[in-house]
Amino acid sequence: AQTVTQSQPEMSVQEAETVTLSCTYDTSESNYYLFWYKQPPSRQMILVIRQEAYKQQNATENRFSVNFQKAAKSFSLKISDSQLGDTAMYFCASQNAGGTSYGKLTFGQGTILTVHP
Amino acid sequence: DAGITQSPRHKVTETGTPVTLRCHQTENHRYMYWYRQDPGHGLRLIHYSYGVKDTDKGEVSDGYSVSRSKTEDFLLTLESATSSQTSVYFCAIGQRAYGYTFGSGTRLTVV
Prior knowledge:
By secondary structure, chain A is mainly beta. Chain A has no helices and twelve strands. Chain A has strands spanning 3-5, 10-14, 19-21, 24-26, 32-39, 46-52, 60-61, 64-69, 74-79, 88-96, 106-107, 111-116. In chain A, the strands form three sheets. In chain A, strands 2, 5, 6, 10, 11 and 12 form a six-stranded mixed β-sheet that branches. Chain A has a four-stranded antiparallel β-sheet with strand order 3-9-8-7, with no helix packed on it. In chain A, a hairpin with a 4-residue loop joins strand 8 (64-69) and strand 9. The model of chain A has no long low-confidence stretch (mean pLDDT 93). Chain B has a single domain (4-110), classed as Immunoglobulin-like (Sandwich). Chain B contains no helices and eleven strands. Chain B has strands at 4-7, 10-13, 19-25, 32-38, 42-51, 54-57, 64-70, 73-78, 87-93, 101-102, 106-110. Chain B is 0% helix and 57% strand. Chain B is mostly beta strands. The interface between A and B is medium-sized, with 24 and 27 residues.
């Protein structure tokens, strides 16, 4: 079974600064996918970034980037130039690439990020 | 997201009553999922479907049943609602590797 752990229940950052959210995971699979989702106060779940485990290059989407350490099973999210609209709950999630799991996502507990003006 | 809708958005119900939540998609996705979101637990899988009339249990399926008679509709039923089922329920569609598209969620309160 997969597990995902986010050890930071809450974090805060000043507008325009950089913040890093931590995530560790455990899986017995050799190939898998990792994701970060954002959930603003509207409750909508929004995909922020995805990483394929067999790709060594860290994924980047505009101000969002990841630090993927496969051996350490770590997948942190870095948000650069933080904006007020980044205030949200952030979830880390993993998904096996094969087997009979039908693409099930396993989520961490979430980290509440507050961006202060 | 326009391709997936959940109803109702909010519901208050009494302990012991049956409740059905509906998920409707227009994307023709084979796979559909029901999750519940609770503080400190993130999102946990209740049930999922891999085709019409093909469903299976997730990690927190006790007290829940599902049905999928059409590709576009996936229903979640609480047979006899309990206070422990007070939660936010999300439906999702999606295939492996690309993440899910989520509905806007249903906030269910059992009193």
